[in-house]
Amino acid sequence: MSIHTFFQWYFRTPVFLRLLLTVSFFMILFGMIIHWIEPEVFPTIFDGIWWAIITGSTVGYGDFVPVTIIGRIFGILLIIAGGGLVTFYMATVSASTVKYENDLSEGKVEYRGTGHVIFIGWNERTKQLIDMIREFAPDEKVVLVDSTLENIPYKEYSIHYVQGNGSEDETLKRANINQARAAIITSDPSMKERQADQASILATVAIRGMNADIFIITEILTKEQITNAKRAGANSIIRSNDFMSTLFFHELYRKGHIKPFDTLVSQLSTQQYKQIEVPDELVGETFQSCSFKFMEQEELLLGIEKAGEIKINPPAKLTLDKSDHLLVLSALRQ
């Protein structure tokens, strides 16, 4: 490697690494020199390097001390040059650490992990979903993409934040979209419903264009935009308005009294919905007999998907085929 190439490499490395290399070079150099000047006091090069590090860092154990005038002059030079370098290095490392933590909170750091879930949009639904993931799936890696947050306390939420628009390629690249396993796009509550749906569809198009295999869940508010969301590449569409309207209706016309906060929603928040293939041992069985077997596992068989049609609470004598899928509700477990 030529001197020119070395200096090009040196000045392209991070500042803290350059300082570490410079400090190491000075300590080794002074250690070798003091060993050469006073071999009786510093019998090995390592003893010289040890003295240089202790002296340069101003610790000063005193186990090795130069006795000649030239040795002491080198000691003075080491304290002036090396001590300043060590102090500057420690200050730079501390400043870099603080800056890195600030950049994490402000969403300026690229995510380099794989197999993660990307959330587009920061709102109350996202917060609750993150809390549920942290409780029931603590090993899940979550990356949040949002353009409205100035910063987020990453230690509190244990997620990686990327500041930017979820429909822009550069932002999605910083979220490492190519290595993500799933993306959840929530509607922006600050927009009108139609505008929020258009923004969600645009984000869906951008994500699908950059990762053809990722599983995308998109929240849509208006029925008219559901078809467009499917065309954009959404694998699953959450119609939150329809869901909430149904809950309001059932709460309004349900019979009986339930103690406060013991509602259907609070109960469902502790349950996990699964769609599974029919096990081989259940092929040819009736829906009723299968329901009993799932009850033995403390799971509830809600319905069945047959020939692309979902049937909730189908006839008890309905026979299960291998191509069917079962809709099961089970308790979330940590």
Give a short overview:
Helices cover 48% and strands 16% of the residues. It is an alpha/beta fold.
Give the ordered list of helices and strands: HHHHEHEHEHEHEHEHHEHEEE
Count of separate structural domains: 3
Overall pLDDT level: 81
Radius of gyration: 32 Å
Strand order of the largest sheet: 3-2-1-4-5-6
CATH architecture descriptor of the largest domain: 3-Layer(aba) Sandwich
Strand content: 15-25%
Enumerate the spans where pLDDT stays under 50 for 5 or more consecutive residues: none
Instruction: Output the CATH topology of the largest domain.
Output: Rossmann fold
Please identify which CATH superfamily of the largest domain we are dealing with: NAD(P)-binding Rossmann-like Domain
Account of the protein in words:
It contains twelve helices and ten strands. The chain has 334 residues and is an alpha/beta fold. It folds into three domains: 103 residues, Helix Hairpins (Orthogonal Bundle); 128 residues, NAD(P)-binding Rossmann-like Domain (Rossmann fold); 65 residues, Regulator of K+ conductance, C-terminal domain (Alpha-Beta Plaits, 2-Layer Sandwich), CATH 3.30.70. The strands form two sheets. The protein has a six-stranded parallel β-sheet with strand order 3-2-1-4-5-6. The chain has a four-stranded antiparallel β-sheet with strand order 7-10-8-9, covered by helices on one side. Helix 6 links the parallel strand 2 and strand 3. Helix 3 crosses helix 4. The two termini are 55 Å apart. The relative contact order is 0.07. The mean pLDDT is 81. Keywords: Ion channel, Ion transport, Membrane, Transmembrane, Transmembrane helix, Transport. It is a multi-pass membrane protein. Its main location: membrane. Pfam families: Ion_trans_2, TrkA_N.
